[in-house]
Structures are given as C-alpha cells and as structure tokens.
Amino acid sequence: MFDASAERNAVTSPVDPERAPDPAAVRRHPVLFRAVRRRRNPRLRRSDITVTDERAVRRAVKAASLGNTMEWFGFGIYAYLAGTIGRVFFPSGNETAPLLSSFATFAVAFLVRPLGGMVFGPRPTSPPRSSAAPPRWSSPP
User: Fold this and answer.
1) Which of 4, 19, 36, 131 could connect to 13 by a Cys-Cys bridge, CB 3.0–4.6 Å?
2) Where is the composition biased (Low complexity) (predicted)?
3) Closest listed residue to residue 82, CA positions, set 93, 71, 95, 69
C-alpha cells in the first residue's frame, strides 16, 4: 500500500533526487528522518532576525511615497497637457502628429528612467566630506 504522507515527509537529497529515501524506511524511522529534515531546514532564531528602527522605516516610507507621488503627478500633468504641448512644440498640418509626438516624448522619458537609475543609482547623493575640506598644504587665512 502506498502512503502519501510518508512520501511527502520523506527527506530528499537536493543534490541527487534519485537518492530519495525509501518510503518504508521513512515509516519505520520517522524520528530519524524528522531530525534530518530539521537539520537541513533549521528553525528561525532571534539572531536571524534584523530589527530596524521603526521611526526610520516610517520616515523612509514617507519619503519614498512623497517622491513617487511627485513624480507621477508630473507625469500626469504632462499626459493631461499632451495635446497643448503637441500643438505648441510640434506644429504640423495634421492634428494627430503633434499629439503622437508629444506622447512619444512622454514614452521616452518614461522608458529611460531605469537607465538613469542604473547610471546614477550607485553614485553617492553628496560628495564625501573629505573633498569639501581644504587641502592640508594650504596656509590658514
């Protein structure tokens, strides 16, 4: 008879799935196989958890939300005024071409954002403090 619970609880080798233990052996020695499973997947300990300052997390979430809101507000205003921007900056005899040109500019700005994040993301937000200090060889005033 096939026991599905024993097969499900069996300890399988992550390296070689063909070396799975015999379901009959799992039924005969459940404590042994439970110990092996616990050793491979240990319980979470307090030292495994990183505790952050709740105020700092709230501040970071608020800052990120504000920046995201401002950015999407700007995109929304641009999309709302796309017809006017198209007529002013892309004059043409056709009514559709300026609107499409305006939306194409919007799409380029939207699609280039990840590239800007990859280029400018690793850079620090401000120069190091040592570069702002005067050189050591300068004489005091």
Assistant:
1) 19
2) 128-141
3) 95
Q: What is the mean pLDDT of each run of 10 residues along the chain (141 residues)?
A: 47 56 86 86 79 84 94 89 88 86 87 86 67 54 54
Encoded tokens for 108? 């380029």
What distance in Å separates the CA atoms of residue 116 and residue 118, rounded to the nearest whole number? Answer: 5
Task: Answer yes or no: pTM beyond 0.70.
Answer: no
Cα-Cα-Cα-Cα torsion 52, 58, 64, 69, nearest 10 degrees, comes to 160
Distance of CA 28 to the CA centre of its chain: 46
Q: Is 132 exposed, middle or buried (0-12, 13-18, 19+ CB in 10 A)?
A: exposed
